[in-house]
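Bench log. Compound arrived from synthesis this morning; before running ITC I wanted a structural hypothesis for how zinc ion sits in the protein. Inputs:
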Amino acid sequence: MRAVLLGTGSPPPNPTRRGPATLLSLGDARFLVDAGSGVGAQLVQAGVRPWDWPRVFITHHHSDHTIDLGHLLISRWIAGQNAPFEIWGPAGTHTQVAKLLDYLSWDIEVRRSHMHDRRPPDVRVTEIEEGKILDTGAVRVSAFLVEHDPVKPAFGFRFDGGGRSVVVSGDTRPCENLVRWSHRVDCLIHECCEMSKTPWYPGCGWPSLEEKVKDLSSYHTQPADIGRVARAAGTKKLVITHLMPGSVPAELAAAAGRDFAGAVAVGEDLAEV
Ligand SMILES: [Zn+2]
Ligand SMILES: [Zn+2]
């Protein structure tokens, strides 16, 4: 089971980190977790051309995790792929995808008008609940609930296959349920959205920087806590992702290492972990 970090960033645009997206693969079987900004170009960089773009598992509907879903859907179809595009996600995915298809419908019809015998893209949505959601024989995919209130439900995903287990946390504060589902996995890819690096402007919705940091920290995992999560899970390796533009990788690794004795890597785009 290979895991390639396609995007290790967070909502703020960052020239060196695309939005959240991770590619899992075992042989020809591929699984994409989230569709953050730039995911299409990153898939191509990772050697996966649009015709082959795989099923997508959405952790939650925050825009930084879904913003390029439309790009994946339409580019794959333009390339000639007529097999259904599978989108797996939390309750609400049907509605969100219907709105996305509505938005794309003008473009789809204009393109079809000068194609020959081309049906519109076929999209297959599966709304998930906690537990095993897919078993290809070689790979088992499970979803588990994480804590990202007020976003409910929000999921993490676990992939087991080829003698290796990998967990992708999605967005969460430190979460007991994630620790249970990550028990002794080979690789835990976990968010660390360091809110002390967030910018503040008047009119952003919080009266002060302090209040913004306090509020947003309550639903993400901070550097002081990330090592404890990995230690509690007993994972062999911790990979830190979902970085803010101002985060310093060496500082995050040092923070994690204070509580966790296993291997720590701070994610970089296109790194295999
Ligand atoms: Zn989120
Ligand atoms: Zn996010």
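What the model suggests: The mean pLDDT is 97. The first helix runs from residue 39 to 45.
ITC booked for Thursday regardless.
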